[in-house]
Amino acid sequence: MATWAYPPLSTEQLNRQADFTLARELEWLLQSLQESLVSLKEGLQECAALLAPQEPGSTLVLSSLRSESVKGFVTRVGTKVVKGDIQLRLASLPPSRGTPSTRLTLSQAPDAPDLVLQQLVSVRNLVNQSLDIVDVSTYTGDPLNAGFIFSQLHLLQETIGEARQMLKGDGNTRGNWWETSASDNMFDPPPPPFLSFHLSIADSALVLLVRTLESSSPAHTPTAFASDISLTGFSLRDRIFGSRQPAHDEAGDVFTWHGEEVRVKEKVRVESQDPSLMAVMAKLTALEHEVMRWVMALRVLMGNEEPESE
Question: Model pTM?
Answer without folding.
Answer: 0.84
